[in-house]
Amino acid sequence: MMRLKLLLSHPSVPVMLGAVGLGLAILLMQGATWQWGFVVLGVGLQMLNEYGLHRYIFHLKPPRRQWAFDLLYQAHYGHHDFPTNHQLFFAPIWVALPMLAVNFAVIYGLLWMVVPLHALSLAAAIVLVGGVATFLGYEWFHMTAHLNVSKTRVERHVTQLHNQHHFRDFSKWFHVSPGGEVIDRAMGTAIDREALKRQQRIEFIRTLGMSPDDPRLVAARLRFAQRYDLSTEDIARAARG
To answer: Is 212 within a domain?
Structure first.
């Protein structure tokens, strides 16, 4: 119940639940039985989207310009800086909603060129139901990985791999959703047990390998301290590494 309350407290989650509801309504009203099978395609595409966004956007090399750094700090760097801060667990609404809009527009546009009569219902199945439901699953598992709570076997597995991303090698294990490790293995971003034994942990505890007192990090922490409830002690501790 505590996890559900925390999940629903994030602004984008109720909107995404509404998107799933809209997709189901479109399928029920306009979709044929066979079109429900495309929900599975949406699951797979969203897992690829999750990997690509995390690896290639959220883990961009830290920009020199502070305004660009601050955007990425809100999107993801801050989560690596303060991995137990509840307000930094979730994708910001200004990331989630544009991604939803772009994904729907692209899929709908492609389908309209091929099967215009079914474009809306198929896009609803792929993006609004399969894709958004998978995104909400990602948010649940990611939140759970960072909480000290009783976990299912699947949640423990996700937590183990995600902890390796945070505290062993931030350039590996970009998936979070269960089953996404297949993508990491295919893309060469998995770590094996022997590699873990050789890994110098201290370099990866730091935020994306940056010095803990990097001026960009210090400026971002101060700027967003009130928004993320960062105390003076939290900021001072982070600067010490």
So the answer is: no
